[in-house]
Amino acid sequence: MTNAVTESDAIIVGAGLAGLVAASELIDAGKRVTIVEQEPAASLGGQAWWSFGGLFLIDSPEQRRMGVKDSLALARQDWLGSAGFDREEDHWPKRWAEAYLQFAAGEKRAWLHEKGVRFFPIVGWAERGSGIAGGHGNSVPRFHITWGTGPGVVAPFVRRVQQGVASGLVTLLHRHRVDELIVEDGRVTGVRGAILAEDPALRGAPSSREVVGEFELSATAVAVTSGGIGGNHDLVRAAWPERLGTPPTHMLSGVPAHVDGRMLGISEAAGARLINGDRMWHYTEGIQNWNPVWQQHGIRILPGPSSLWLDASGERLPVPLFPGFDTLGTLEHLRTTGADYSWFVLTQKIIEKEFALSGSEQNPDLTNKDLRLLSKRIGPGAPGPVEAFKEKGADFVVADTLDELLAGMQRLSDVPLDSERVAQHIQERDRELDNAFSKDLQLAAIRGAREYRGDKLIRVASPHKLLDPSAGPLIAVKLHILTRKSLGGIETDLDGRVLGDGGEPVAGLYAAGEASGFGGGGVHGYRALEGTFLGGCLFSGRQVGRAIARG
């Protein structure tokens, strides 16, 4: 079976958030759009649907209500200190970074608000940084959780695309896998590929790759919004940079397997320049999902700062590698230890207040906008999904005594664990809590975090001894490396036009979202500030949609 050529103003390859945003802008301009997506209709919205829905905003009303004083200048300092731009290829990424900062400090919130997006009133403080004002990290809380989490971010754009389908402006083709960008006289004029067999697979679950036909489509412009490489561990290892040590033998997947990076090579074959492929963002706090949707399905713990972090042998991580501070710094250090995992040691008191799980499905109160369920976050007990992982998760050890905890950790260890060293670290930390001051910088950071109203209210437990029976039971969590985001990708200008090796635009070709490193081929540089991945899809998708609409 072969589909005839269909003409439209734009073809969008990938029905994730960036593609939906670009399509929405084109619909608003009255343009005809064809969206092609290899996955079944159940996966409309892509990775964004699974996310916690955190968005980076600057000097927002939510920040001001929580007593946070933010500014564009402070955010720029944090972004540039984190990005560490240092390459010739960073020309467009730097321009994208400035444009995105202006967007996050300007119309981003109002634009989303007009579409019905609302935010949880307490702003989170993610990626707290390296400990130096001009270095990596967020100086202030900027992580705005969407009311409705990832599905709440995706919803207005899905709705607009569905309206476009109803009005005849949009053709939405699921199970259409693009295998080639058609180039004629140096211009991308369309796509061709395979029609895959219908598949009832649920969102995120593996789907069939059985080919039942072919298709070819033409358009004035083609936009690649197909995501990154996080679901393809072979590509992740091939791109792994020497500065992060050796790639792990074992990793969990924070994204479905269809996030496979296929369109990057296909775009390169059509003339696109790929840059900064060695820049990537993977988490070190991954746990095995006890109820997986895809293979090696991992969930990230979004930790507060109080858990004691140990490497696989039981050695404490160095300053300032505390939970929630420096993702890639921690990854780099852990790759020197020779093991693919590490440990959190904590108490029930800490897990109740400080453990959040990344993902829309792990936060039913916020995702479903359930106020009754949400109210339990400030009461006793851990959130239900956290307790479910504590009870059923393969990576959790729960014990009433230190000896029982150490024995449980030994059972889960793949390399020798120095139990005496673990006990020593716990006891040394606990002695520091006999005073309200300490030389231990993690304890100082905990006390500093509680100066922020939001952290004191729902995010950071009051300092206490790990061996205090009233704070128990004791808990240890085995943490795995979790693949997530590509920080490099297809080089583009500020309109999202794809650039070739000589810096010239590839006529007719655009890119947005993670496929373009969230803009320009690497807007984050080496490190991200969190809340900037969904935001990068929103901004780059909007830029591309508006640029194509202008012609």
From TrEMBL:
SUPFAM superfamilies: FAD/NAD(P)-binding domain (SSF51905). InterPro entries: FAD-dep_OxRdtase_2_FAD-bd, FAD/NAD-bd_sf, KsdD_DH, Succ_DH/fumarate_Rdtase_cat_sf. Residues 9-534 form the FAD-dependent oxidoreductase 2 FAD-binding domain. It holds the Pfam family FAD_binding_2. Keywords: Flavoprotein, Oxidoreductase. The keyword Oxidoreductase applies. GO terms for molecular function: steroid dehydrogenase activity, acting on the CH-CH group of donors. PANTHER family: 3-KETOSTEROID-DELTA-1-DEHYDROGENASE, KSDD-LIKE STEROID DEHYDROGENASE RV0785. This is FAD-binding dehydrogenase. It comes from Leifsonia poae.
